């Protein structure tokens, strides 16, 4: 268990984290999200022991301290992968990875190196010097090198930030899957819901120097109780329920993702289309409600025209789920 109790940290001009407490089960994958500057990277750095702090952090019952109590920065059982990757630029990809591998025979070393090269899909670049690689490729070598060290805890700061979209999902599956098989506890600071929804056991939202919400990412996605949570996953609309269902007895705002609407020709919430964005497999529309002049966003597979009037609806099960989960007044 990674236990964080009443953790506080300030910079000269600002409190960054104020009395943060959380327990993280060994072997679990946890993502930290929140607006830029909310302290995600700082939290990972504090766990890794790079700054002095107030409060307690312990791993498997053993207290962890800041740099003044450690000979070298960082804890041996952890690996922290920051934006500056700390690679050895004049060595090759394979040398950077194999440097940290413990293997008793050359054949085993070769096999384990190959496994890691396969994982990051960089066999073809194995003999290239790291300094000649792109930022994204260096990021992958750093990930493989971190995993080669078989840490108990892996702390990743925006791990796929520089990787191209076309490879990203496959690499995420490889790397998070490898960490899961090895029983490594993974903590990720990210802005990207695709790092979180398919891979994390827990999502933690940082806001106002503390933990604002935490839970199963799928629950938080499906039943966001407040807009700040829904917004982590992209665009979201906040709509007074009476606009959608005029006969509704309660007064509340409903959070609706753009893909949850469906378009009807005949009935629903009347909107006029203001703008259309082609998104590949669908169109994203900006529209204005005819009543209350509210701006909202919805997705549809069809090319609708600017100025066109359509009716929007949301499936009954989403309506019931959201109403059932509304925050207490
Ligand atoms: N070396 C530093 N010196 C002074 N202030 C810093 C330093 N590093 C970070 N900060 C400040 O601390 C706050 C938290 O920064 P941190 O990098 O932890 O945020 P973050 O949530 O990881 O942001 P991002 O999503 O943009 O990476 C920010 O206000 C930032 O400006």
TrEMBL record:
Please name the Gene3D superfamilies in this protein's record.
P-loop containing nucleotide triphosphate hydrolases
Q: Keyword check for Zinc, yes or no.
A: no
Q: Which InterPro entries match?
A: AAA+_ATPase, ABC_SmlMolc_Importer, ABC_transporter-like_ATP-bd, ABC_transporter-like_CS, Mo/tungstate-bd_C_term_dom, P-loop_NTPase
Q: Name one GO molecular function term.
A: ATP hydrolysis activity
Protein name (Swiss-Prot/TrEMBL): ABC transporter ATP-binding protein
Q: Which Pfam families match?
A: ABC_tran (PF00005)
Keywords, A to Z?
ATP-binding, Nucleotide-binding, Transport
Source organism superkingdom: Bacteria
- What residue ranges are annotated as transmembrane? none
Query: Per its UniProt record, what SUPFAM superfamilies does this chain match?
Result: MOP-like (SSF50331), P-loop containing nucleoside triphosphate hydrolases (SSF52540)
Q: Where is the ABC transporter domain?
A: 2-233
- Can the keyword Secreted be found in this entry's annotation? no
């Amino acid at each position: 268990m990674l236990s964080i109790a009443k953790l506080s940290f300030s910079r000269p001009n600002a409190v960054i984290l104020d009395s943060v407490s959380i327990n993280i089960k060994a072997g679990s994958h946890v993502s930290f999200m929140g607006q830029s500057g909310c302290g995600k990277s700082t939290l990972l750095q504090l766990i890794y022991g790079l700054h002095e702090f107030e409060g307690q952090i312990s791993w498997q019952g053993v207290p962890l301290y800041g740099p003044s109590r450690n000979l070298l920065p960082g804890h041996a059982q952890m690996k922290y992968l920051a934006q500056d990757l700390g690679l050895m630029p004049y060595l090759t990809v394979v040398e950077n990875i194999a440097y940290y591998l413990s293997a008793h025979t050359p054949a085993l070393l070769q096999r384990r190196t190959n496994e890691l090269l396969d994982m990051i899909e960089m066999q073809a670049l194995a003999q290239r010097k790291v300094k000649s690689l792109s930022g994204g490729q260096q990021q992958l070598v750093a990930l493989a090198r971190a995993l080669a060290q078989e840490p108990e805890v892996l702390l990743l700061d925006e791990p796929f930030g520089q990787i191209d979209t076309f490879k990203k999902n496959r690499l995420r599956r490889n790397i998070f899957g490898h960490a899961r098989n090895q029983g490594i506890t993974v903590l990720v600071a990210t802005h990207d819901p695709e790092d979180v929804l398919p891979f994390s056991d827990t999502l933690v939202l940082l806001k106002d120097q503390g933990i604002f919400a935490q839970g199963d990412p799928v629950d938080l996605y499906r039943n966001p109780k407040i807009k700040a949570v829904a917004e982590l996953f992209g665009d979201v609309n906040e709509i007074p329920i009476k606009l959608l269902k005029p006969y509704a007895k309660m007064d509340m705002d409903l959070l609706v993702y753009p893909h949850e609407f469906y378009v009807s020709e005949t009935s629903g919430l009347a909107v006029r289309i203001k703008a259309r964005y082609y998104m590949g497999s669908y169109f994203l529309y900006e529209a204005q409600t005819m009543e209350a002049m509210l701006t909202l966003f919805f997705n549809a597979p069809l090319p609708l025209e600017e100025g066109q009037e359509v009716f929007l609806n949301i499936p009954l099960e989403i309506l019931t789920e959201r109403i059932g989960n509304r925050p207490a007044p």
